[in-house]
Structure formats: structure tokens, C-alpha cells
């Protein structure tokens, strides 16, 4: 669906751009449709460090941000700083001409305050819901439905109320926007997170990445308390101790506020001779590792957030034709289908047994990899999500 191009301002707090692949793909889609695209986001630490830059026609303004540590109080400080910088830079973008659409990506659910300011100047507000923040709070902090939880719910309600259009990453999120957020179904558009498959391609396998072992296991993604890296490590200990398999090396690619704790846990489990943590790596190195991997891990445990969330790691594993082991989660199965094997929720020994099964089944691994690639190149493709994104913008400015 075509849209009348205008000036779009995309707000991101969780990651820098273009490191945030979903947001960068949205930027490119809008640019190609004729939109003038501006982005406000935090600076990265090793990449995306410039305060202001134009990349491939997309104007990006970045601000310094210290990531939260500890409990909820740290996030209040982080989000307060991000909100101040975002408003400051939004005013700067606005001085260059009217903003037609402000497109805010959560978390946190506080960016509606910037959207309110811009709506008074005639902008339309699109809420791009990357996470369900109430479920994220419950899953991350284990504090129950306390005062802060109720505050998080109130911020979500205000965000829904302020939004002219909502973008959801899957049908589960759309149901929440309609039932909990009170949005009309026609004002909620599902824009799935999907890799551009052309960017993910096999390169020659490098046996040296397996550190002398026959098999390589790979994890790719953020390492936060709710992301299940600890489940993966305990499953690998079970693979070694209970299944009796030591014919593998495992690589964990990515970073996050649980990174140091996960490195420490691997040492505590005496896995440090078989487990490697790379931190964030280049796209070229990512292709090298995934091309050499035999099995990819998606250890996100069952919790209120993960059960209804689309995991980017699953989509990228499938784009690389890799077989997957996952816990049984509603949206994980929607994404991966038969490209994954599913252990009962949070059952680490069964997760380990499924890894062992795939290590012994090269033909099944190949079949699952082909099925996954077909899914992300077909029904789950970014091409389909592009159409939904442009439809959301058309609805916002109609």
C-alpha cells in the first residue's frame, strides 16, 4: 500500500541504530517509500558512537546513556535521562520543519510523553510495541504486582490512549493491544520482526571455530535476566554430566546486563573449557559462527513475556538454515514451526537430550534448516512486514 510521504521521527531507547535491526529495516522501508526519516536513539559503546550522522539517507541523532544496573530504581534513572535527551533532540528535529509522524519503539512506555508534545504540533503517533512492559516487569524482577508494576501498567494504558496507530510484532501482541489497550482492531498492524534473508547467507564452515570438537552449538542474542542463558548453561552441564556428551563446543554471541553473571555461571558449572562468550561481534563474524554451527539454542524460559514474544534469534537462526532447540513457548512455535524441537517449558535435562538427538541426526538437522529458511523467505518474510508497516503509516495520516 502506498502512502503520501512526509517527515517521520522514530524514537528508540533500548538499542542504538542501525544496530537495532528491526528499527533499521523500518527506516529503510520508509525511506524507500519516500519518507524523510529521522531517528533519535542512545549512542552505542563500540559502534554507533557518533552524536549525529546520516546513513543511507536516514538522519540519526544519538545521546549518551548509561545503562541501568541493579533493580527497578536503576531503570527509573536510565529512562528519565533518556526521556530528557529524546525531548531535547525531538525539538531540534522539529525546528527543521513539521513532523508528520512520531513513531515510538518501546521499552520503555514513557515515550508517549514526547509524542504528546509533538501531537500538539500536528504529528500523528504510532506506537511500535516491541515488548509488553507489564509482562517484562513481572518476568525480570520477580516482585509480583507491586506498586511499580501498577505504575508500569498505567504507563502502558496512557501510551495506548495516546497512540493513533499501534504496531504489534505478532498476533499475541495485537490481542493485548485490542483487549487490554482498547484499540480498534483496524488500528493495530502486525509487523513481524523478520530478517532480510539476503543479508543472511552461508559462508564456508570453519572447523577451527569448534575448538577441536566435532560439533558447534550457538546462542545469539541479548543476555538479560529473562533471556535464559542460565538455562542454556545448565542444559549444557546436563548434556555433559547426564547425557555424557563432550563432543561439542558452544559459543554465546551477544551481550547484556547479565553477561558477567553468565560468564561467572559457566565457570561455576566448570564449562569454561567448552563455552566461549564473544560479546557483540560484526555481521561478518556472525555469519562465520552461524555457518559453522550444527545446532542453535533458543533457551528463553516460559514466563509471562517470553510465551507471547517473537524471538529475533529464532528468525535469524532460520534465515541461516540452522536447526533449533527451544522450550515450548506459544510464539516460538508460531515462528519456528518444524524448524525447531521443543523441550517442555524450562526443562533443562530434556533440552539437553534434544541437543544430543540433533547432534546424532545430520539429515534431520538439514531438513529442519531448509524448513526454517523457507519460512523466513516466505510467509514470515520482511517483504510481508513492509506492506504492513506502510499500511500502518497510511492509516495514521489518513
From TrEMBL:
Xref: Pfam families: Glyco_trans_1_4, Glyco_trans_4_4
Keywords, in A-Z order: Glycosyltransferase, Transferase
Residue span(s) of domain Glycosyltransferase subfamily 4-like N-terminal: 21-184
CDD domains per UniProt: GT4_WbuB-like (cd03794)
Superkingdom, taxonomy of origin: Bacteria
Keyword Transferase: yes
InterPro entries per UniProt: Glyco_trans_4-like_N, Glycosyltransferase_grp1
PANTHER family: SULFOQUINOVOSYL TRANSFERASE SQD2 (PTHR45947:SF3)
Protein name: Glycosyltransferase WbuB
Native organism: Amycolatopsis oliviviridis
Amino acid at each position: 500500500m502506498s502512502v503520501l510521504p512526509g517527515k517521520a521521527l522514530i524514537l528508540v531507547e533500548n538499542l542504538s541504530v542501525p544496530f537495532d535491526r528491526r528499527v533499521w529495516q523500518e527506516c529503510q522501508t520508509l525511506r524507500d517509500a519516500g519518507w524523510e526519516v529521522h531517528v533519535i536513539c542512545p549512542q552505542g559503546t563500540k559502534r554507533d558512537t557518533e552524536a549525529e550522522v546520516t546513513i543511507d539517507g536516514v538522519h540519526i541523532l544519538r545521546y549518551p546513556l548509561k545503562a541501568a544496573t541493579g533493580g527497578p530504581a536503576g531503570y527509573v534513572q536510565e529512562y528519565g535521562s533518556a526521556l530528557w535527551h529524546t525531548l531535547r533532540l525531538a525539538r531540534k528535529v522539529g525546528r527543521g520543519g513539521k513532523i508528520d509522524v512520531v513513531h515510538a519503539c518501546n521499552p520503555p512506555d514513557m515515550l508517549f510523553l514526547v509524542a504528546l508534545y509533538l501531537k500538539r504540533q500536528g504529528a500523528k503517533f504510532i506506537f511500535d510495541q516491541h515488548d509488553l512492559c507489564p509482562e517484562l516487569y513481572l518476568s525480570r524482577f520477580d516482585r509480583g504486582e507491586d506498586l511499580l508494576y501498577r505504575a508500569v501498567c498505567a504507563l502502558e494504558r496512557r501510551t495506548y490512549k495516546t497512540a493513533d496507530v499501534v504496531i504489534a510484532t505478532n498476533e499475541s501482541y495485537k490481542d493485548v493491544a485490542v483487549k487490554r489497550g482498547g484499540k480498534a482492531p483496524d488500528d493495530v498492524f502486525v509487523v513481524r520482526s523478520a530478517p532480510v534473508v539476503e543479508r543472511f547467507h552461508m559462508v564456508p564452515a570453519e572447523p577451527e571455530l569448534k575448538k577441536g570438537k566435532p560439533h558447534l552449538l550457538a546462542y545469539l542474542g541479548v543476555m538479560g535476566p529473562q533471556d535464559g542463558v542460565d538455562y542454556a548453561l545448565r542444559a549444557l552441564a546436563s548434556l555433559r554430566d547426564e547425557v555424557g556428551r563432550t563432543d561439542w563446543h558452544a559459543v554465546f554471541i551477544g551481550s547484556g546486563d547479565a553477561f558477567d553473571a553468565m560468564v561467572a555461571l559457566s565457570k561455576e558449572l566448570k564449562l569454561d573449557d567448552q563455552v566461549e562468550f564473544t560479546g557483540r561481534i560484526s555481521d561478518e563474524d556472525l555469519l562465520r559462527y552461524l555457518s559453522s554451527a550444527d545446532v542453535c539454542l533458543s533457551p528463553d524460559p516460559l514466563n509471562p513475556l517470553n510465551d507471547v514474544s517473537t524471538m529475533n534469534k529464532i528468525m535469524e537462526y532460520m534465515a541461516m538454515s540452522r536447526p533449533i532447540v527451544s522450550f515450548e513457548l506459544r510464539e516460538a512455535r508460531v515462528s519456528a514451526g518444524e524448524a525447531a524441537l521443543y523441550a517442555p517449558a524450562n526443562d533443562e535435562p530434556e533440552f539437553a537430550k534434544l541437543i544430543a538427538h540433533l547432534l546424532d541426526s545430520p539429515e534431520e538437522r538439514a531438513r529442519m534448516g531448509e524448513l526454517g529458511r523457507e519460512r523466513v523467505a516466505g510467509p514470515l518474510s520482511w517483504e510481508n512486514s513492509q506492506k504492513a508497516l506502510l499500511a500502518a503509516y497510511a492509516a495514521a495520516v489518513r
